[in-house]
Amino acid sequence: MTEPVKTNTFFSIFWSILSKWSSKLIGMVSTIVLARLLTPADFGIIAMATIVVALLESMTQAGLNLYILRYKSHDERVFNAAWTVGIIQAFVVALPLVLLAPLIADFYSQPVLIEVIYCLALVRVIQGLNNFGIFIAQKEMNFKVDFVLTLWTRLSYLTATIGFAWYLESFWALVFGQLLSAFVGCALSYYLHPYRPKLSLYNWRDMLKYSKATVPLSIGRYINNQADVAIVGRVASAQFLGIYHVAVNLAGLFTKELLMPVIRGLIPNLSVLRDEKNFKDILLTTFAAAVYVFFPVGLGLSLVAPEFITVLLGEKWLEAIPLLKWFSLYAMLAGMMMFFSEQFLVMMEREVLSNRLMWARNAILVTTIFLTISYLDVNQLPKMLFLSSLVSLPMILFSISRSLELSLIKILVSWLPALAGGAAMYGVLHWVAFPENWLTIAVLVLKVALGGASYASVVLLLFVLRGKPQDTLESAILNKILAKIN
Fold it and tell me: Cα-flanking dihedrals φ and ψ of residue 3, to 5°?
């Protein structure tokens, strides 16, 4: 008789969520404070430099953290080689940055970008020296180490950037904050994990073979996430790029970034469970869970965008309101597609399909961007990106269902309660009027409460009306709660 497969799903997801959301909460606090100390143009300058750094990162991203998760044994020779490749990757990114800095500054007509890019190149080198033991801990489903590292690294960034921003009143606060947090993160990675890496190129051919499949995916992910920002940086002012970039980040924070820690917690467990007989049912429930979270959060953020921007960022960021309304919806769908078609497919050893889907999405995305820039106003870009994602989603779902042998009908039916709950949320927040003399923060809090309550009520009501079926996400959550109580 075989022993049941053992996983630690709950604590893996718990610590992963705690790690990611502590980071994002600190980042949000940092953005709120810095938005009042700095100008949109300051954020625009940093966005220009970040675009180039992310491009070079994508062209060299080997994805070795997922590689060691797929690797069956615990072999320090493999860990040493992965750490060595990470250092090589850091210098492959940093050296071109230094050489291309003057050309990048000329491209954006911002001479100050030269010094900024030099500093960001140094940041990348420091990050490349981080202890690979952090990823080993993730392989062992110990996300507590990652949480502690993330927490203190982000806190160092928060205190440094706010302090420098108050003193310098310049975008240099953002640069110096990244430098300090990189040093802190590197030192802490060695303090928190006993693993001590050594230079090695063991098994490098297998890593190279793996990277040939993951690098195109990484480049495709860059285009998918940064193509619009890169083009806006070229055709618009630093002021507008700063507003655009902050709106993008805020939308992603409450949509795509919301489920990234869940993915990080699930991947090691799903890697163990994929040979189980009920694995398809687990995938269906997992996909449904993504929609149950993504849909109400993305829609809700769009509906409260005016109050959200006014309360959090202040009057000088009001231009971001129409951008955030559409970006939250776009990030909602983009997050779903990322969730379905990237990490899961790589974990299931379907990198080729993942690459094809990514580049098909990018073809639709880039076409949309150029048509919008050519024939419409740049302010219409978020809306058009959302419409392009509506075209991509059916393609993703059809391909995933065929590859993983899942019923497309079952996938869509499992989403219906979430869609009905979202419709109820829209109706409540769209038709309920609030007195004009109310404080904006009071309206924001009340809208969030009403939207959340209407969504949850409809989902629960439909669950009861269907006779409380046992093969649903609602039932799984309810059984988990009852088990804890008993």
Answer: -75, 145
The dihedral through the CA atoms of 17, 19, 21, 22 has a sign that is positive
4 within domain boundaries: no
245 in the same domain as 215: yes
Q: How confident is the model at residue 5 (pLDDT cuts 50, 70, 90)?
A: very low
Tokens of 101: 């800095």
| 346 three-state secondary structure | helix
**Residue 437 binned pLDDT confidence (cut-offs 50, 70, 90):** confident
C-beta of residue 78 within 8 angstroms of C-beta of residue 71: yes
Q: What angle do CA 28, 379, 366 make, to 5 degrees?
A: 90
Asked if residue 421 is part of any domain, the answer here is yes
pLDDT band, residue 89 (cuts 50/70/90): confident
CA distances from 89 to 178, 211, 215, 236, 351 (A): 19, 12, 12, 32, 21
For 483, phi then psi, to 5°, come to -65, -40
The answer to whether the beta carbons of residues 245 and 252 sit under 8 Å apart is no
Tokens of 285: 């429930």
Q: Identify the CA nearest to 445 among candidates 317, 325, 320, 308.
A: 308
pTM over 0.70: yes
Question: Are residues 302 and 447 in contact, defined by beta-carbon separation less than 8 angstroms?
Answer: no
What is the domain range of residue 119?
9-414
Do residues 176 and 27 both lie within one domain? yes
In this structure, are 247 and 286 located in the same domain?
yes
Q: What is the largest CA-CA distance in the chain?
A: 70
- Eight-state DSSP code of residue 276: S
Going by C-alpha positions, the residue among 333, 296, 311 that lies closest to residue 417 is 296
